[in-house]
Amino acid sequence: MTAPPLPRRExxxxxxxxxxxxxxxxxxxxxxxxxxxxxxxDVILDDIGDVLTDxxxxxxxxxxxxxxxxxxxxxxxxxxxxxxxxxxxxxxxxRQSNELCDSTGKLPADxxxxxxxxxxxxNVALALMERLGETGTMKEVA
Length: 142
Known about the structure:
Radius of gyration: 26 Å
Distance between the termini: 77 Å
Largest sheet: none
């Protein structure tokens, strides 16, 4: 004995708009590139520590330290600017950062002056990072 066949159901087609990605491939590639170049905050702290340490820096490394500190300062300034932080100390530190990271990006030729410039950059970056944490603009890093 076999079971009677089940009645055949009709399939209902729903008209659904096909999915479209929110970004095109160029926009996704641009966003991915931007994410790749962002320094984590702990890396910025490491760069600050490298310059402010008691250990002497080799003059041959000054350019690399300058580039990394400049990138870290620019990131901190971007965070403060994007958040619209109008705290007096933050505004002062952002101004100092902009002065230290002028468009030329060149360090003084004298090694002592270059080291002093790197240390000023590191001190401003550290102060700005701490103040952004105090004002709640950014979570504390350490």
